[in-house]
Amino acid sequence: MDSNSKFSDTLLSWWFLLLQLFQTILGRFWFFNLGQGGSASSSPSIDSNSVHSYRYDVFISFRGADTRNSFVDHLYAHLTRKGIFAFKDDKRLEKGESLSPQLVQAIQNSRISIVVFSETYAESKWCLEEMATIAECCKKLNQKVFPVFYDVDPSHVRYQNGVYQNYFDLYKKKFKCDRNKVVRWTNAMNFLANSRGSHHSFHPR
Q1: Choosing from 94, 119, 129, 130, which is the catalytic residue?
Q2: Global pTM?
Q3: What is the pLDDT of residues 65-81, one digit of tens each?
Q4: From CA 197, how far away is CA 145, in angstroms rounded?
Q5: How far apart are alpha carbons 69 and 12 in whole angstroms?
Q6: Which of 34, 37, 176, 203 has its CA 20 to 30 A from that of 110?
Q7: Measuring CA to CA, which residue among 98, 8, 113 is closest to residue 54?
Q8: Would you call 130 a catalytic residue per the annotation?
Q9: Does 82 have pLDDT greater than 90?
């Protein structure tokens, strides 16, 4: 197969996956009032008892090195064309290991989150913190989450093996004195991989 055929196959795979995502997301919006926008809450803590308002329709969690200039850019562009207000952190500065309060608020104030699991997603502690926060919002705020497995086997996410094993072996050594941090990440990955929401797998090769 020549390079042009491979490129065409990749584009077709993208379009098929994007179509699946749009159909699912748009189906969810039949149950939401998209005409009302919310304001960001003043606190980054997650309060399951408060009346929740939304600022964004979709929050996209992704590893920029893997997907920023390919799948995620296509996804964001098509969501925008459909009139869906999506949050994509293009100017993220992954400094430190804690999310900024503004980013936590963006996650909390989104109706739906899409987590794009790619080969180096787990390399970023920032991405893992995003993902864990999304999982908490799913449990406490009933936020809808759609995992996308971008050239990653869902079992690697579920059990932190395969392409993710080396990263988590390092984290277990690095955070020996703060095991709850790694447990929070692994629990979130297991929860999202086993979630009842739609799973979308894409293998670009």
Answers
A1: 130
A2: 0.76
A3: 777 677 888 888 888 88
A4: 6
A5: 17
A6: 203
A7: 113
A8: yes
A9: no
